[in-house]
Each structure stands twice: as C-alpha cells, then as structure tokens.
Amino acid sequence: SAERARQTQVQQQAQQQQAAADSSQYQPLSKEAPDYPERALNKGIEGDCTVVYDVSPQGKVVNPQVQGSCHPLFMRPSLAAAETFRYQPRIVEGRAVMVSGVKNTFHYRIK
C-alpha cells in the first residue's frame, strides 16, 4: 500500500539521519597516511586538509571531496588516502546503511 511505502521511506530517512549523526565517532578499521608531496616538502609547506565522504553499506569510501581550505598540493594525496579507508559497515535495525558526511582531516607536518 502507499501508506506502507511511505512509512518505509520515512524509516529509511530516519536510519540515514541516525547514521549521519553517529558519523563523528565513526572511525575507520584501516587507514593509510597520505604521502607527503615532495614539492610541499621541498618548499617547507605544512597544512591540514579535510576530506568529507560517504561510507557505503560495504564499508568503502565513496564520493570523497576536499572541504574548506586545503593547499592544492595536499588535495590529491588526501583524496587518495581517504579512498583506502575501510569501515565497519554501519548497522541500523539489522541492515547495513550508507553513512553520509563522514569527515577526516589530514595533518601535514614536517618533522
């Protein structure tokens, strides 16, 4: 029935919102640090780069995008590193769901 379909849609939206609300504590099972770009290293450039992305029901990063100010030299390695992350699938009411708006900030510091 149309009413049942509407209720299902509302439940799915609520699940996605709940998953998104929990995403700030959502940590990857595995993550690799990005490579420090040689040109940035040679020029002594440091900085932070925040990447925001969704995590698929399979725990893979999808749609990574740089958010805010990020030095151009840090964009590509940050996006590439984010794509290597693997997450525990988020389970809501027994089903794996997409988690939207997960953020990770990469800190580039010369030691």
TrEMBL record:
Family matches, as InterPro entries: TonB (IPR003538), TonB/TolA_C (IPR006260), TonB_C (IPR037682)
Function: Interacts with outer membrane receptor proteins that carry out high-affinity binding and energy dependent uptake into the periplasmic space of specific substrates. It could act to transduce energy from the cytoplasmic membrane to specific energy-requiring processes in the outer membrane, resulting in the release into the periplasm of ligands bound by these outer membrane proteins.
Membrane disposition: Single-pass membrane protein
UniProt xrefs under SUPFAM superfamilies: TolA/TonB C-terminal domain (SSF74653)
Any one Gene Ontology molecular-function term assigned to this protein's record: energy transducer activity
Family classification: Belongs to the TonB family.
A Pfam match: TonB_C
Protein's UniProt name: Protein TonB
Domain of life: Bacteria
Basic and acidic residues bias spans: 32-41
Keyword Ribosomal protein annotated: no
PROSITE patterns on file: TONB_CTD
UniProt KW Protein transport keyword: yes
Cellular component per GO, a single term: outer membrane-bounded periplasmic space
